TrEMBL record:
Gene3D superfamilies reported in the protein's UniProt record: P-loop containing nucleotide triphosphate hydrolases
EC number(s) reported in the record: 2.7.7.-, 2.7.7.7
Name the record gives this protein: DNA polymerase III subunit delta
UniProt keyword terms in alphabetical order: Nucleotidyltransferase, Transferase
Gene symbol of the encoding locus: holB
GO molecular function terms noted in the UniProt entry: DNA-directed DNA polymerase activity
SUPFAM superfamilies per the UniProt record, alphabetical: P-loop containing nucleoside triphosphate hydrolases
Superkingdom of source: Bacteria
């Protein structure tokens, strides 16, 4: 059975809704702050336990380690009989493109509105990118503020109907990972590679 990715800001109420109608012994919930390789190994072990009825394995985390995701690829693509996998994340880019391509994605809308991205992604220039970076020199936004900016850039690209390749999506995966794992990572180290790649993409389409 194909797995499902739920994108939601609040995990607990969603998990409660998902497990309705299931007996306790047929549900396994792995809720973590950071989902790591040891968690992936535990999930795989639980997956191969014999079950008489359709069962759910739910993974919910703010951060998903890349090695842990890679370890889950095969079992997500070919789950054992009577098992459905559900992954919950706050942003789909917390998950690798290889994971996202194997699962159906359901996005739960939040009341939180994304701030518009500072630049027009349809008309990027090197001068605008330079000024954007210059304005952010010396600033130290929080992880949450940077995360919102990354999300708003992705949203702006989607609104502009700029399709991203798997390689380009991996740059966003890297940006999110940098923001999650290193509180001292400079803002421009995260955004400059993304903006330059988008600029190059736009130039190639002209």
């Amino acid at each position: 059975m194909i797995g499902i990715i739920h994108i939601a800001q609040h995990f607990a109420p969603l998990i409660e809704e998902l497990v309705l109608g299931y007996e306790e012994q047929y549900v396994e919930v792995f809720e973590r702050e950071d989902f790591k390789i040891d968690d992936a190994k535990e999930v795989i072990a639980q997956s191969y336990l014999t079950r008489e009825k359709q069962s759910l394995i739910i993974l919910a985390a703010n951060k998903y380690n890349h090695a842990a995701q890679n370890a889950l690829l095969k079992i997500i693509e070919e789950p054992p009989s009577k098992i459905q996998f559900i992954l919950i994340a706050k942003n789909k880019n917390a998950l690798l493109p290889t994971i996202r391509s194997r699962m159906r994605i359901i996005t739960h809308k939040s009341n939180l509105e994304l701030p518009p991205f500072a630049l027009n992604v349809k008309k990027l220039s090197l001068q605008e990118i330079y000024h954007f970076c210059k304005q952010n020199e010396g600033k130290a936004p929080s992880k949450e503020e940077t995360k919102l900016q990354i999300e708003s850039l992705l949203f702006a690209l989607n609104e502009a109907e700029i399709k991203l390749t798997h390689r380009e999506l991996s740059l966003f995966d890297t940006a999110i990972k940098l923001n999650q794992n290193d509180a001292t990572e400079k803002h421009n180290y995260i955004f400059l590679p993304l903006l330059l790649r988008i600029y190059q993409k736009q130039k190639s389409l002209q």
